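User: Quick sanity check before I run a bigger batch. Here is a single chain. Can you write out its predicted 3D structure?
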Amino acid sequence: MYAMKENDGKQKISRRTALKYMGLGAAVIPASLYLGGCTKKTDKSQPVPDLTNIPTDKMTYTALSKTGDKISLLGFGTMRYPTVERETPEGIRKFIDEEKAGQLVDYAIAHGINYFDTAWMYHQGESEIVTGKLLKKYPRNSFYLATKLPGSVKSREDAIATYHKQLEKLQVDYFDYYHLHSLSSDVMYERIYKEWGMLDFLLNEKKEGRIRNLGWSFHGDQPLFDKVLAEPVDWDFVMIQMNYFDWKYGRVPAEYMYNRLVERNIPVMIMEPLLGSRLAKVSRAVSEMMQEERPGDTPAQWAFRFVGSHPQVMVVLSGMTLMEHLQENIKTYSPLVPVTDKQKDMLAKAAEIIRTYKIIPCTDCKYCVPCPYGVDIPGILLYYNKATWDSNLPDLEGQRDAEFERASRAFLVDYNRTIPELEQANHCINCGECEPTCPQNIKIPTDLLKIDNLVQQLKTT
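Assistant: Done. Predicted structure follows.
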């Protein structure tokens, strides 16, 4: 595709060469990168959630589990634990803030949450360790614990060793729910679970009682979904990305996957109910529709009510970094007020509006980090999206008027405040290591180069 050169055994391309081949060396950024038709600031007066009187005894539970588990509809995802920066020999790194994470977990349990979801790569391997430590003080039969076999394993032996290491890290003798994690390509699935025999290994672990429920989480295309679903395996659950936007417009529409699982009577787990927080803040048009239908509810509450209202949904996972997020979600499901058919129609119209906004589909899963060159990939992509929503994305093809000057200044000032200088997009060399790990199939180096080109041009205007 590009002219490459060998560097440490990996295909590399210089930033200057990449810009040349992408046609961005001296050109302006294409208009399609911007928020179409956005000339005014979005509404800043989004509803504020009522965080008073959070119930401790009204959580909604489901009874869909094939093992008879009574599971809280709201599950605690540990991908977004709060973090703290510490100095290491390799430089400043982010680690889980165990004190704050412990406060969240304790509060969750006290308010009815009993399902906790983690994975090998969350927080660069730290999540399983901290989760095991935080849950250790509670009776083992008082909570349900899920983790996943990563797609990054290098061999059958590595996969088996990883599995046993997870038991050790989580300080448990068995997993309540175990995933074939993030199935995204047929090649990966065939290699790990067929050629290396890991599907048979996990089925045997279930037979031996060290896995109570076995299923898979999905990020691939429709042929792969259909293929895995058709396996002669009695799957106990499947986790899909579902929200009112992805219901129709996902890579594989959530409506299709959900209905196929309903046909097979397989319980459904939900990830990304907020689409990586993209549905937590909506445009003025969408906000007004929501407020007219149900005054006072926040966009996040609408999103959680939508997914929770589907009868085959067993648990909705949310990574809650702040106490306010946890409290709002608990209140939404304590108890759940299902959306009506009329409200579903309204959310379908909201999805159509949101679809017109040209933003990068990053969900802040952090599967792309750490970057070998220190680039804060999710931070940059999310900053770009925020600037889009806030109408702080200057149109280089438009008039150089007062609005252009305001937006340019706001974009550059906030970019430098948000992203440390050594972690900005200009340090991306397009090595491509991040791209295969992205569940949303974002062309990460391409988007980083476009964003940096915008930054460099704004500095000279």
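The first helix runs from residue 15 to 22.

User: Great, the batch can go ahead then.
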